[in-house]
Structures are given as structure tokens and as C-alpha cells.
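Summary: Need help interpreting a holo structure output

Steps to reproduce:
1. Submit the protein chain below together with the SMILES for fe (ii) ion.
2. Request a joint structure prediction with the ligand placed.
3. Inspect the C-alpha cell block that comes back.

Expected: a single structure record containing both the chain and the bound molecule.
Actual: see attached output.

Input attached:
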Amino acid sequence: MGDPHGFGDGSLTPFVEAIWTATTPIRFAATWQPHVMTVVRLPAARVLLHSPCRPSNALYDAIAQLGTVSDVIAPNWFHDLYLDAYRARYPEATFWAPAFLKRQRPALIDRVLDSEPPASWSGLLPSVRVAGLLTFDERIFYHVPTRTLIVADLLMNARATPDTPFFTKLGYRLFRLDGSLRVFPVLAWFGQSRRPAVRAAARAMLQWNPERLIVGHGTPIAQGAAAQLRAALGSLA
Ligand SMILES: [Fe+2]
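--- attached output ---
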């Protein structure tokens, strides 16, 4: 797969033991962004996919090398892209999403993220929900063995590259996306980032004290994530 915008070629990339990422470009409000999928290897050769990115046969083949896909997670309302393709590819897997998405797409989503996760990953991947923010309903995960926080849209750390198209550069300037970790700018604009649900999630994330952090739109942070998280959350926590 090509990478015309410098935001990912969709290849499966090792991140840390038991976690990989795959990134493909996605268009949002006239800008291009990286869309990061997190792939977690679970016990018993099972594989969990978080926030699926645009699939390809090469990506499916690479995932198959890791094990059998048992769970696919749409962490918020907006990350339901490509789910139809993944559903067709992994008919046996359990598909998870917020309640709204399950109501909208009952045939696609098996379980609501508020329900009890299966024993195969409940202890490995505790989570916190950020609910009650307009249309924003996201579940944030923490992979205990590798101290990796996995966020979809609440935090961003994208940056423009030399290949970035003009309007994307403009949008990033407007969003103040310069490669440092930030709370999703639109939440802040609407005064939503100070809501109790965000503050509770902020405290939970800092208590986990993550070493690593993967965001849905941006470059994964391989070390020292807690300090960047503290700086991004500021007085919210
Ligand atoms: Fe997103």
C-alpha cells in the first residue's frame, strides 16, 4: 500500500512485546490524519484489534501470523470505519462498541463496551469510559504488562510532514497539532474538556502511570508517556 500523505502505509509495525500498530491515512474536515490501529496479542494465540484502520490483504496476512483474531474494538462512535470489512473477514470474532453504535448497527456489533469483558483480556486491559460529552463516548484502555495506554480521540499528537498537503498543514496549525500530545482540540473549544467525565478519565490515566501511549491519530509514544500525559492534561487531572 502506498503512503501518499506520509501518514502510514498500513504495514504491521512492532511497538512493544505483544503490541503492534498499523497506520493508514484518513480524511477528516479537509485534513489528512494518520489513523492508528493497535493490535494486541492475548494469551492462547488470540489477537485483539483496537480501532481498525483501512485493511489490506497484506495486513490481514500479517495479523494472521500473530494468531486468531478474537476481539475487535470500536472504542468510540467515530471509529466504526472499515468494521464491515473486518466483520466479513473475522465472522467468529466478538465486535465491541459503545451502546449507541450497537443500537445503530446491531448486526455488526456483538457487545457493548460497558458489559463485562471476557476473562481472556479483562485483567490485561482495564479501561475507563469518557461519556456524556455531546457525541463523544470513548473507552480508553491500558495494557498492564507493557504499561501502554491506548487512546482513540481524546488525545492527539499528530504533526505535519514534508509531504503533508497544504490544507492539512493549515488545519494542523489551527488545531495546534505540532507533534506534542494534546487533548482533542474540538473538545477544548466547546468547553467540554473540563467535564467531570474527562477529569475522572484524566485521573485514571495518570494513576496508571503509563510508560507508553498509542493515540488514534498521531505517533505512538514509546517511552516517558506519563510526563507527556501530565503536560497534556494540565489542570484536568
Ligand atoms: Fe478518530
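--- end attachment ---

Reviewer comment: The longest helix spans residues 196-208. The chain has one domain: 13-231.
Status: needs-info
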